[in-house]
User: What shape does this take?
Amino acid sequence: MPVSSNIRAFINGWQSWSPSGSYDSSDRMPQTRFGPFLQPMHHPGGESYSRVRGHFVSDVFGVVGVPTGPGVLIGFLSQSQAFGQLEIMISGGSASLRLWEDADQILLEPGKVFSTDWACLIPLEMNSKEPLSEYLRMYAEVNHARVPDTVPVGWSSWYHYFQDISFGELMKNMNWIA
Assistant: This one.
């Protein structure tokens, strides 16, 4: 990545509780204080991430660039074979990137073959109206995404009750909705 003092990285979380956002070389990878107790919920494989400033790990894809200038998206177009991650190091006004799939730590014996999911690298103009549109189009195509004519209405107990849901609480909510 070109040298610039204002390079930022957008990292994508593994799931809805995982950290996502835009960070620069002075930031650290966000982590919970509950450490090993919640790591498996936040990261595939449950690994801990570096606390070094400017060192980030993004799931599936990530973006690195200058907010009002050039950037690059690098990532996978699916996760059907393994969980893919992007490691980003921002230091001294430049960035280095490393993309891998961990294959659930399966040992590949000599002579055996493992095919990964397709990966892509897309140059971006960060201040364009929809800089991720080409990646999202390709991701949707590879994964046979379906777009409904109307947005469905739904309800989920998870974000209020988490693991403390019971049949009684569920029925109270159903009665209120009705």
Observations:
- The chain has a mean pLDDT of 86.
- The longest helix spans residues 167-177.
- The chain has four helices and eight strands.
- The helical segments are 39-42, 133-142, 158-161, 167-177.
